[in-house]
Each structure stands twice: as structure tokens, then as C-alpha cells.
Fold dTTP/UTP pyrophosphatase.
Amino acid sequence: MKIVLASASQRRQELLFRLVKDFDIIVSDFDESKVPFEGSIDKYVKDVALGKALDVQRKMNEDSIIISADTIVTLEDKILGKPKDEEDAFNIIKSLQGRIHLVYSGIVVINTVKDVIIKESLATEVSFSEISDDEIHEYIKTGEPLDKAGAYGIQGIGGIFVKEIKGCYYNVVGLPLNKLKFMLEEVQ
């Protein structure tokens, strides 16, 4: 059966290719701002991922397995989105330095033939080292943090700030492969 990734993310596409060699990409137009945050980060990331998957399902007219994901960075239960500008990126990274934060992913897999929807979430604990203001400014100059939740990419230059992680590395990148592998097996 056809497999569809509901994401424009290059990172997610590269990661999914490790599990599935042949898949299509249909980008979701789902408006994430429509999902209310009601205090549960776990529920929130699953609801956003479900919204993306259902949006792509509505666009399709053939049987398929649809995969969608949403990843957010949190610090003390506050969601740290993508920075609005360089100053915001600086403030986000500064808030993370020397501290532990959590990265959550919500993953949804839909089998349109069986009308089965599986929703899962995963959290990974990430510890940052102490970072000087100069190091933060140099990192921002690379442009990498400007389109990343939490203003860093663990798989890129931002990985130099990561002191330790507890949990799935690929979850922090944006697609927890081990979790997804078992979800795909379950939905088939």
C-alpha cells in the first residue's frame, strides 16, 4: 500500500527513508494555531499531528498509510516554538543553556483502508551545557536556529551545546524511528 509522509521537513523525509524506501510526500496545510493547548503537552502534540494527518487524508483519493508528526521543545512546561527573529533565538537559547528541557513528538499513522488511526507521543530529556553569549551569537550567525523549534538543531551545529540526552535521539531530530517502526507494523 502507498505510504505518504504529511511533512515538508527534509529531516523527517531523510529519517523515514531509513524505514521505508518508497513513499510520497503531501504537505499538510493544517493550521496548528487551531489546536488549543489545554495543559497537556502530550495531548497537544498528538492533536497537532492528527490534524496534519487528517488534512492530508482529505486531499487524497487513494488508499494509503499516512504518517504525520509534530515536535516541540518545552522548558518548565512552556512551549518554545520557532524563533521570530535573531533576538528571540538568542533569548530561547539563553534560557536553555545550563538546563534540562524536554522535546516532545506526537506521531500519527492512519491506514485509510482499515480506517485505523494510531496516535502516540514520546518525550526526550535534553541537557544543555553552559553557553557564552558570544557562542550563542556565533551560532545564530549560521542561520540554523531560525527555523527550528527551541532555536537549535541537535543533528546540526546546535548539537555542540547538548551535554546529554535521556531518551530517543531521533525524537529530538523530529521523527522517533523506533516508535514509528512499531506503529507501522501495528497499522498494517
Q: What stands out?
A: Residues 2-187 form a domain with the Maf protein fold (CATH 3.90.950.10). The mean pLDDT is 96.
